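Morning run. Coffee first, then this:
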Amino acid sequence: QTHEISPEELEQMRANLKRIEGSVKRAEFVADMMDSKLLDPIIGAVFPEIGDAITALPAVYIMWEAKRAGMDKMDMARMIGRTAVDVVAGAVPVAGDAADVVYKSNEANAKALREYFEGKKADVISLEKNIRQQRGELKTRLEGDVAA
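And here it is:
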């Protein structure tokens, strides 16, 4: 037996989607600043002893946004793994700063969050399409009953 989606539930799903979209945009902004704008290697070079701890904070923020969005444990584990590789590689003097230029864990994590959002969005669009189709079929049946 299928669960009938109420208008309130559908509206809640849309609101949740909007919230996740905000998380994605914030994560993408942070990732862009750290990886594309090269703040990660710059901070590592300027603050050699604590730079990696400082640059781990934006990575943790991206993961927090992903957790808030509802990403599953396996995807979260992958994010943690990418971040761990980045932090460990970045801790190596000089070579770590070069690695930070090449290895873009924040962008990969933000991309994973974007893909999660796009999947949720596709689910809601599909659900809305099914609801419209069911309403159309019901309307056609009702019109047929009235005509008979």
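The radius of gyration is 22 Å. Good start to the day.
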